[in-house]
């Protein structure tokens, strides 16, 4: 299940089938239609008896889910064991397609609800509002209209898309699902009659058959350039047109009838970033050449979009000079444009002889086209010059009392330029601190440089070139993974000097530390205090008016000390860094390196923002958006609009005195609990992961090694290759592997022991009600455990022949479940979240089926002699099941 915005799924045929309540009527109808069509496809295209075997396993899994006795579960296992490898392969594909169709139905229904009510939300809202307009009203009540307006106009929400390999679906599968969704939308919009229903059913059958016949596992690893183009699809199909609609909706709510008639009430608050093509930490395939291509692709996409939008707006401005005369300033600008582009101006005069505003925008569109084509004689120097022309046109229209034209579609175009510039998303570079240390040591030693060091230096030259071509805002943020000292930050400036040589002009750099481990989080303010004294950084602070950015790593800190201690350490680090910045008068932006899974900082972003320490948000929120999360949050326009509105609302509301005071009081009130939980959870986590033999055991009892074969992304799953230590294992496969084993250990291990050591249930219930950080932690762990399965988890753990590890994990899981249920007041975990609970009940039997298929494949592969070639058939089944479980859980890493 997705960890936010959950809509209940259904069983085949759209009924509860004994594991949950009734679905909403429309959703049930969609699921019944799609799954019945899948049944037809399996009968037509599958091998003989496939449909019957799928039904036999489905019924057995439902019975096993409802009946907790060993016999029912063992009967389901026996069915799985009876399948030939060929049949098991087909069944894994069938259940995977089923999940894709149910996921599609859920999303389609959520869009239906959002279209009917744009503020629809299944998550509870602590303050009765989770829209920007509502948050603004609440804030104005607390701090006054003037101060609230200042905060609204200075707010920033900055998502950064990454290429981290957590999207298990192939692009071909995603495209097929999108086409099915289009047919479903057409079906809903088309008046019902036998002819149209038959036609659309035929098209749906054709597309579902295509989905069934398309292998869900990638055969080849995507290149960084493939990843860039994949992300471009989200920009092209959703964000480019959605972002101005978000702004318009907020203006409609705040300004009422004045919206579109007067200047907008807000300034663009969304800024987009990307690591795709720039993140070279552990990815040898991201080179300086790839970085150049990435930004060139982004720029081409946005300039094409702006050109088309400008031509479209121009076509609507058929206002005559008699009714809507142009201003003197616009007439002057027209003369300048005419001089620069005589051919274009002649064509514009012919097409719009008495329509001065249309003529200007026609030439503006030609200048955008020239900018894309690198025609220096006609191109814009940068987005500010384009904005100047658009605002001049807007002011002229307003002076002629054509306010609806001034602040209608033209305003939306202005918002697009302000948001995306000529680069679409700011390309950020990330590199590991140890790579810099090696490169700097070589530079300082003199002599011939290694290939690695040459590439490091070329990156700085590339950034300078990109800034010259696209402007300083297009690239310049440089993130240092595993920052452990101020020298790690200063090394960036030193390397930039070596790159351009004596007297050369280097790029403008905003150096950003990334604090990832527990120790580095604790040392963060000490490192920052030393770094701000460095001349290059001090000069940059003066240039930016004291703006500083600090990134926090959720993933590696959790792998380092466990999820509980990591969450507490991250909160403490944010509080300390925020206080440090306030004491120095600096404008801090904390950059949250959150993943999709709960073990990597996932979960609803808006509730997490409202739980942050005082002054750590201050109207600025930046986070990474990774893998499947990108497509889940931004892939569909209505959902993207809702997500942006929710997160921006929380970003604005986080500065409300009532929330800051609540968080501060709670942190002080429950500090002793935090201390006990930190120490106890770290101790328990260390007992497991630091024990001798844990790393190879982990690699045995989960499909960790096989995940690296899935070709999810261009970056390797490991920085090294050994399974004797977890140090080189990336956090994504660490989380992914535990979720596949239906244990989700990365999201909860250690919490049960921590709560047991606190021991006071009434105090913990009080903390759950009053302490947002604790509330979020408990709720997220509840979601994580809800997707775990005790019986299946034990079977995975027993593959490793270490009963001590198995019992430690199972005991901690049981202890954590009991405490979560007691604290939240239900008989079981997530009893206090009925919508999520229903979704879990609906999905789990089918995910269980895929897990049993995966377990069977894993047993075969683990039993093969060491050093012998693995069986390709069983390996393929394992990878198919990984893809299917990911679809069923709607979550990878």
Brief summary:
With 893 residues, the protein is mainly α. It is 64% helix and 6% strand.
Strand tally, please? 8
Strand share of the residues?
5-15%
Mean pLDDT: 88
Terminal-residue CA separation: 13 Å
Instruction: Report the structural category.
Output: mainly alpha
The low-pLDDT segments are: 1-21, 122-128, 597-601, 717-722
Query: What is the topology, as strand order, of the major beta sheet?
Result: 1-2-3-4-5-6-7-8
Rounded to the nearest angstrom, the radius of gyration is 28 Å
Helix proportion of residues, in percent?
Answer: 55-70%
Tell me the overall shape: globular
Q: What do these coordinates show?
A:
This protein has 893 residues and is mainly α. Among the domains are: 12-124 and 172-219, no CATH class; 428-512, no CATH class; 667-889, no CATH class. Mean pLDDT is 88; it is low at 1-21, 122-128, 597-601 and 717-722.
């Amino acid at each position: 299940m997705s960890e936010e915005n959950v809509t209940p799924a259904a069983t085949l045929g759209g009924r509860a089938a004994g594991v949950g309540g009734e679905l909403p009527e429309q959703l049930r109808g969609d699921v019944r239609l799609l799954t019945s069509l899948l049944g037809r496809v399996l009968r037509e295209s599958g091998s003989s008896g496939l449909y019957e075997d799928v039904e036999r396993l489905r019924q057995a899994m439902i019975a096993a889910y409802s009946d907790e006795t060993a016999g029912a579960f063992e009967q389901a296992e026996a069915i799985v064991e009876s399948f030939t490898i060929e049949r098991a392969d087909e069944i894994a594909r069938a259940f995977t397609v089923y999940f894709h169709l149910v996921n599609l139905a859920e999303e389609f229904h959520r869009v239906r609800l959002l279209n009917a009510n744009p503020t629809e939300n299944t998550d509870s809202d602590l303050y009765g509002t989770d829209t920007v307009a509502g948050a603004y009203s609440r804030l104005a009540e607390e701090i006054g209209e003037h101060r609230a307006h200042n905060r609204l106009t200075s707010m920033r929400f900055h998502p950064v898309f990454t290429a981290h390999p957590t999207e298990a679906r192939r692009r071909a599968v995603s495209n097929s699902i999108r086409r099915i969704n289009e047919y479903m939308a057409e079906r809903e919009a088309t008046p019902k009659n036998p002819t149209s229903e038959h036609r659309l059913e035929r098209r749906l059958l054709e597309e579902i058959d295509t989905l069934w016949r398309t292998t869900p596992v990638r055969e080849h690893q995507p290149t960084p350039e493939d990843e860039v183009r994949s992300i471009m699809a989200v920009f092209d199909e959703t964000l480019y047109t959605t972002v101005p609609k978000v702004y318009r909706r907020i203006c409609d709510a705040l300004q009422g009838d004045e919206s579109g008639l007067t200047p907008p009430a807000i300034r663009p608050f969304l800024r987009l970033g990307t690591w795709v093509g720039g993140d070279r930490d552990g990815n040898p395939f991201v080179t300086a050449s790839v970085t150049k291509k990435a930004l060139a692709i982004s720029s081409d996409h946005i300039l094409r979009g702006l050109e088309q939008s400008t031509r479209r707006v121009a076509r609507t401005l058929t206002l005559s000079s008699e009714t809507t005369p142009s201003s003197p300033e616009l007439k002057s600008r027209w003369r300048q444009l005419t001089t620069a582009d005589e051919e274009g101006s002649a064509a514009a005069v012919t097409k719009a002889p008495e329509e001065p505003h249309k003529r200007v925008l026609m030439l503006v569109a030609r200048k955008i086209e020239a900018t894309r084509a690198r025609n220096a004689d006609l191109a814009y120097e940068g987005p500010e010059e384009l904005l100047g022309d658009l605002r001049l046109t807007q002011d002229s229209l307003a002076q002629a009392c054509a306010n609806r034209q001034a602040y209608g579609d033209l305003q939306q175009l202005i918002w697009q330029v302000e948001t995306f510039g000529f680069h679409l998303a700011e390309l950020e570079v990330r590199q590991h601190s140890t790579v810099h240390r090696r490169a700097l040591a070589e530079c300082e030693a003199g002599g011939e440089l290694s290939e690695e060091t040459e590439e490091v230096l070329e990156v700085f030259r590339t950034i300078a070139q990109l800034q010259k071509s696209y402007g300083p805002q297009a690239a310049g943020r440089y993130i240092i993974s595993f920052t452990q000292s101020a020298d790690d930050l200063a090394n960036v400036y030193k390397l930039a000097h070596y790159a351009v040589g004596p007297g050369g002009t280097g790029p403008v750099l905003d150096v950003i530390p990334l604090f990832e481990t527990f120790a580095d989080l604790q040392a963060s303010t000490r490192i920052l205090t030393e770094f701000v004294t460095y001349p290059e950084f001090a000069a940059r602070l003066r240039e930016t008016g004291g703006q500083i950015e600090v990134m926090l790593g959720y993933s590696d800190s959790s792998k380092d000390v466990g999820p509980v201690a990591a969450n507490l350490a991250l909160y403490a680090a944010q509080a300390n860094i925020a206080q440090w910045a306030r004491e120095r008068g600096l404008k801090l932006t904390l950059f949250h390196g959150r993943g999709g899974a709960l073990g990597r900082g996932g979960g609803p972003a808006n509730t997490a923002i409202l739980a942050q320490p005082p002054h750590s948000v201050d109207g600025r929120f930046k986070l990474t958006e990774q893998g499947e999360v990108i497509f889940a949050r931004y892939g569909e326009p209505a959902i993207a609009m809702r997500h942006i509105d929710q997160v921006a609302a929380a970003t604005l509301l986080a500065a409300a005195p009532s929330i800051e005071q609540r968080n501060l009081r709670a942190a002080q009130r429950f500090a002793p609990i935090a201390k006990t939980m930190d120490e106890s959870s770290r101790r328990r986590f260390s007992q497991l992961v630091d024990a001798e033999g844990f790393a190879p055991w982990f690699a045995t009892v989960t499909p960790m090694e096989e995940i690296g074969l899935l070709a999810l992304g261009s970056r390797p799953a490991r920085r090294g290759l050994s399974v004797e230590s977890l140090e080189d294992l990336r956090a994504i496969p660490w989380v992914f592997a535990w979720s596949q084993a239906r244990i989700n250990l990365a999201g909860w291990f250690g919490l049960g022991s921590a709560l047991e050591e606190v021991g006071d249930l009434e105090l913990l219930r009080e903390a759950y009600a009053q302490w947002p950080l604790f509330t979020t932690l408990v709720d997220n762990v509840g979601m994580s455990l809800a997707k775990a399965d005790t019986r299946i988890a034990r079977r995975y753990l027993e593959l490793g022949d270490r009963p001590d590890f198995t019992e430690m994990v199972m005991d901690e899981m049981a202890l954590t479940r009991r405490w979560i249920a007691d604290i939240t007041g239900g008989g079981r975990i997530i009893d206090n979240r009925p919508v999520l609970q229903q979704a879990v009940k609906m999905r789990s039997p089918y995910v269980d089926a895929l897990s049993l298929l995966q377990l069977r494949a894993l047993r075969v592969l683990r039993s093969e002699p060491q050093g012998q070639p693995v069986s390709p058939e069983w390996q393929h089944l394992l990878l198919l099941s990984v893809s299917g479980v990911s679809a069923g859980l709607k979550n990878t890493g």
